[in-house]
Design a protein that fits this description.
The complex is a heterodimer. By secondary structure, chain A is of the alpha+beta class. In chain A, about 30% of the residues lie in helices and about 30% in strands. Chain A folds into 3 domains: about 10-95, no CATH class; about 100-160, Orthogonal Bundle (DNA polymerase, domain 1), CATH 1.10.150; about 165-275, Immunoglobulin-like (Sandwich). In chain A, strands 5-6-9-8-7-10-11 form a 7-stranded antiparallel beta sheet, covered by helices on one side. Chain A has a 4-stranded antiparallel beta sheet with strand order 1-3-2-4. In chain A, strands 12-13 form a two-stranded antiparallel sheet. In chain A, about 25% of the residues are buried. By secondary structure, chain B is mainly beta. Chain B has one domain. Chain B contains 1 helix and 6 strands. Chain B has one helix at about 5-15, and strands at about 5, 20, 25-30, 35-45, 50-55, 70-79. In chain B, strands 1-5-4-6 form a 4-stranded antiparallel beta sheet, covered by helices on one side. In chain B, strands 2-3 form a two-stranded antiparallel sheet. Classes of the chains: A alpha+beta, B mainly beta. Chains A and B meet through α1, β2 and β3 of A and α1, β4 and β6 of B.
């Protein structure tokens, strides 16, 4: 610990390490660029790096560990030894949490206010490596209480609050030349496909997973409210396809309808089946 | 001069030729590995970015920050 003897600021260790790895990436990129940009046959690549830093290690009132560079004439600085080595992509993937596979990638800070975990509880879960609701859901609340002291009731209340469907984002994706709307969120489907309405009109759900839905907008859909109804609960958000996307949706839908009629099939907006990871199923709630 | 650590590393490696060719002798010498062990002035700055510099002189004064150390190993890779 040290007093405020230096004008240099203290920074959280996590922030420093993130910045350091980003700097090493930049160094590798710069060295690689010299090969492609200068026609050199060989280049240097950074393999290992060890740094001894003279710092004062401090702990804030919130329990955050920070490092502050030692200034001129300061006594008692610690020496931090950092050793870094380059690793391969498979090693990165093997040792990293795959957020894209998380069934509920919302941060634990996003749990609704009435059952929210306080900052101290969030920090304790962070120490355990738990940052998302999906990770929290996989834990045994009794074990968590025993290890970090968060009461079982608090965890159960937070999980209950986090079990409601929620829409976090949407994006237009092109599939088979046709614009579709991908809806991301949490708890968006259960065993059965959800019902999705855009601007109050049910739309076909092509694929459904708890964290992602793929729906087919109708030609008239440009912007409005999107509703997801599943398990007796409802999540809402607003969509805006933008003028170009909306025109593309309308044009493609019209082409699709003409093709379908030429082939003797039902018009697209009359289709009631949906296919997804669970196989063909009936989409409920159509008028 | 203090600069981002990434720039210092790039500058250090760039000053060593990975290949030396002698047309007279008809030989080329490839360096396979470069180990550097250097004293380092380092300062953690905004955003946790590490700024670093080699010591600015041989004589230490009371105004100099405490020196750390850096060991870097570079390998030569083909394009």
């Amino acid at each position: 610990m040290s007093g405020a003897r230096s004008s240099s600021r203290a920074y959280p260790v996590e922030e420093f390490l993130q910045a350091l790895t980003a700097q090493l990436d930049r160094a590798q990129d710069a060295l690689a660029l010299k090969v492609s940009g200068t026609e050199r046959p060989l280049t240097w690549a950074l393999k290992d790096l060890a740094i001894d830093l003279r710092v004062f290690i401090e702990v804030t009132e919130r329990g955050q560990v920070t490092w502050r560079s030692a200034g001129p004439g300061e006594d008692g600085a610690s020496t931090v030894h950092l050793s870094l080595t380059s690793i391969t992509r498979p090693m990165v993937e093997e040792n990293s949490f795959r957020f894209q596979d998380d069934q509920d990638p919302r941060g634990i800070t996003q749990i609704s206010d009435d059952a929210a975990l306080d900052p101290d509880e969030q920090r304790k879960l962070g120490w355990m490596g738990v940052r998302t609701v999906g990770q929290l859901r996989k834990l045994d609340p009794v074990a968590v209480e025993a290890i970090v002291g968060i009461p079982v009731g608090r965890l159960q209340a937070a999980l209950q609050a986090a079990s409601h469907p929620a829409v976090t984002s949407q994006e237009v994706v092109i599939r088979g030349g046709r614009p579709l709307l991908a809806i991301r969120g949490a708890n968006l489907s259960g065993h059965a496909p959800p019902e999705v309405r855009m601007a109050g009109v049910p739309v076909e759900v092509l694929e459904w997973k708890p964290n992602r839905l793929l729906v087919k907008p109708q030609p008239h859909h440009t912007e409005g409210q999107v509703e997801v109804l599943t398990g007796g609960r409802r999540a809402t958000a607003f969509f805006d396809l933008g003028p170009e996307r909306a025109a593309e949706v309308a044009e493609r839908a019209a082409e699709h309808e003409v093709d379908a009629q030429a082939n003797g099939a039902a018009p697209a907006n009359g289709a009631v089946h949906a296919t997804g990871p669970q196989g063909p199923a009936q989409a409920g709630g159509r008028p | 001069m203090m600069r981002p650590l990434s720039e210092l590393l790039t500058a250090l490696a760039d000053r060593v030729a990975s290949t030396v060719v002698s047309e007279e002798a008809g030989l080329a010498l490839h360096v396979s590995q470069l180990d550097l062990e250097l004293p380092l002035e380092a300062q953690i700055g905004p955003g946790g970015e590490l700024a670093a510099s080699l010591p600015r002189g041989r004589l230490a004064t009371g105004f100099d920050p405490l020196l750390g150390k850096m060991r870097a190993r570079f390998e030569v890779r083909p394009r």
